[in-house]
Amino acid sequence: MKRVITYGTYDLFHEGHLNLLRRAKELGDYLIVGVTTDSFDLERGKLNVCDNLMDRIEAVRATGLADRIVIEEYQGQKIDDIQKYGADIFAIGSDWTGKFDYLREYCEVVYLPRTEGISSTQLRERRAAPMRLGVVGSGSIARRFADEAACVSGVDIEALYNPVDERAALSYNGEAVRRYTGEYGEFLDAVDAVYVASPPVTHYGYVREALLSGKHVLCETPFVLSDAEARELYVLAEERGLTLMVALKTAYCPAFNHLITLLKSGVIGDIVDVTASVTTLLPDDDRRRKAAVGSGSFNENSCFPLLPILRLLGTDYEDIRFVSRFREGVDEYTRCMMQYPAAVASFQVGLGVKTEGNMVISGSKGYLIVPAPWWKTDYFEVRYENPAENRKFFYPYAGEGLRYEIKEFLMAVRAGKMDCVKLTEGENVAMAAICRMFKEESVPVVKI
Ligand code: CTP
Question: Does the CA dihedral 413-118-402-264 come out positive or negative?
Answer without folding.
Answer: positive
